[in-house]
Write the structure tokens for this entry.
Amino acid sequence: MFAVRDALVERGVRSWVCGGFGVAVLVGRVTREHRDLDLLLDAADLAAAVAVLQERGYAVETDWLPIRVELGRAPDCWVDLHPVVFAADGSGRQAGPDGTWYDYPLGTFTTATLQGREIPCVSQATQRWAHTGYQLRPQDEHDLDELDRVIRPS
């Protein structure tokens, strides 16, 4: 996770960790294996983010733009990019399936510390919201349990 985030930061790509690693950042420790790194990123930075990853051997494996694009690198590295269009007030909006949208109000984007590093991530409230509307998998239940164990401002 750190190598990908550092490479993106070096190129000026703004991103926030979400998904399973986002929970790890919020609780301050990695508590399970992760298949991929999910990042919300400024849609204006999408091309630069893809280029950074391709330079590091990643290739596009799933292209569901404008919703998301997933890149993989053998043998088992994946990064899932979710482009967000930001409003002047700092709120954001991500395309969803069938013409829907995911809205990210003010307070969605925050930071937390993992392994002594301050990492931009999404809030606890956003993580909880992202775990609704579908059948939870064991890893989702684990992540919610971890969030329940740690009380931090959202």
Remarks:
- The CA atoms of residues 7 and 51 lie 11 Å apart.
